[in-house]
Design goal:
By secondary structure, the chain is an alpha/beta fold. 42% of the residues lie in helices and 14% in strands. It has an 8-stranded mixed beta sheet, sandwiched between helices. Strands 10-11-13 form a 3-stranded antiparallel beta sheet, with helices on one face. It has a two-stranded parallel ribbon with strand order 1-12. The relative contact order is 0.18. The structure holds pyridoxal-5'-phosphate (PLP).
Length: 421
């Protein structure tokens, strides 16, 4: 029943019962960490054979044990051009982390500018980025570190509010960038529509050196057969004459091993010339052995898709379990709203305004640690204090079931308190 339609006495009675359930969970001394979207051990086991690969020469005889190959080995570029949907000569295969590549691109833009002749962003009085929110906390942390002012843009069900984006980039030269996760977005799970992609590609920007940081971390991470399709922004930008506008990133962190995967990026040839110049000063070359191991293990795009189905078989039931519990415990009460993603790593839940922090704190007191409330917004401040990121992949099904029940109890108690205020 809708909580709003219950009178104070009925709500208080219901709360007393919920408190009993909460105390019961508290006495179980649970210790679950659901703060980050990490693969579970069964997922990591899928790639165990990759560690046995002993080869060290590429098809054209490069010895991967030695220095060199600044932008990646040819077969890695060939294979991963499918993930990035760009030509092999439009990509760089890097180290172990896409986040690291994003950081480096931003650091480069701050120190040297995004292209020859442009003023380094760090020399400008102010640099602003559009941040569709809720979004990825680590993106926001990078912006904050570099003193980039983050402007929240609402995330709609088909991507960022494009009217706001178009207006802001057209009127303000200090808006130099936008950073986002376009497919199975972290945390809202949505995929940008074709129309959003087209508008991003063709919009007029006041800053000539405006760039989109397109973090396609979940490009092949479907949870079901149909999956979502994301239109290729890089191609769309080429078609509108804005080919320098976008940097596309992804990695195998959630295909193989987080922290020991392969990261990559795609961009225009002009952008890549700038970036490669810097990389060749930063390093004598990436971990080519890891790149080769990945190519030998993952083999082809078809095989990657098959491999991702194995991941989905492991984590799909966890997503289903969370959604089922949310439905049973909260549906129709009009105190929480959540998405049903077709892929990615998260379920995003909105509570009544002003409740998220209290829910997260109360869950932690019962041993269920979630991503800090507010973390999904710039500066860690959710203006409505209502968004909670649920990361179902790491805990076992049994742990997850208990954890979500605890969260549902906390949401109900905190909501009742708010309604009784
Ligand atoms: N980008 C997004 C959107 C993520 O959710 C994550 C990890 O959770 C990363 C990047 C990290 O990627 P990597 O391990 O390649 O640095």
């Amino acid at each position: 029943m809708e909580f709003m339609k219950m009178d104070a006495k009925a709500l208080q009675k219901y709360k007393d019962e919920l408190m009993r359930q909460y105390e019961d969970f508290q006495s179980q001394k649970l210790k679950y960490d659901m703060s980050r979207g990490k693969p579970c051990p069964e997922q990591l086991d899928l790639c165990a054979d990759m560690l046995n690969l002993k080869e060290y020469k590429t098809a054209d005889g490069i010895d991967c044990r030695n220095y060199g190959g600044i932008d990646g080995i040819p077969e890695a570029k060939q294979l991963f051009s499918n993930l990035l949907e760009a030509d092999p000569d439009e990509i760089i295969i890097g180290g172990n982390s896409a986040l690291n590549m994003i950081y480096d691109t931003i650091a480069g833009a701050m120190s040297f500018g995004v292209s020859a002749g442009e003023i380094p962003w760090g020399k400008l009085p102010k640099v602003k980025f559009l941040c569709p929110s809720p979004g990825y906390d680590r993106h926001f942390a990078i912006c904050e570190l570099f003193g980039i002012e983050m402007i929240i843009v609402d995330m709609n069900s088909d991507g960022p509010d494009m009217d706001a984006v178009e207006r802001l980039v057209a009127e303000d030269e200090e808006v130099k960038g936008m950073i986002c996760v376009p497919k199975y977005s972290n945390p809202s799970g949505i995929t940008f529509s074709d129309e959003v992609v087209d508008r991003l590609a063709r919009m007029k920007t006041k800053a000539k050196d405006f760039r989109i940081f397109w973090d396609n971390a979940y490009c092949v991470h479907d949870l079901n057969e149909q999956g979502d399709k994301l239109k290729n922004l890089f191609k769309a930008c080429k078609e509108t004459g804005n080919e320098d506008r976008v940097y596309v990133y992804t990695s195998t962190s959630k295909i193989t091993f987080p922290g020991a995967g392969v990261a990559m990026m795609a961009s225009s040839k002009a952008n890549l010339i700038q970036i490669k110049k810097r990389i060749s000063i930063q390093t004598i070359g990436p971990d080519k052995l890891n790149q080769l191991r990945h190519v030998k293990f993952l083999k082809s795009m078809e095989n990657i898709k098959e491999h991702m189905k194995k991941h989905a078989m492991i984590i799909g039931p966890k997503f289903t379990a969370v959604l089922d519990i949310l439905d049973t415990q909260l549906k129709g009460k009009e105190i929480a709203w959540w998405n049903k993603p077709n892929g990615g790593y998260f379920i995003s839940l909105d509570t009544l305004d002003g409740c998220a922090k209290k829910v997260v704190a109360m869950s932690a007191e019962a041993g269920v640690v979630m991503t800090g409330a507010g973390a999904t917004f710039p500066y860690g401040k959710d203006p409505r204090d209502r968004n909670i990121r649920i990361a179902p992949t790491f805990p076992s099904l049994e742990e997850l079931t208990k954890a979500i029940k605890v969260i549902c109890i906390c949401i109900q108690i905190v909501s009742i308190d708010k309604l009784l205020e």
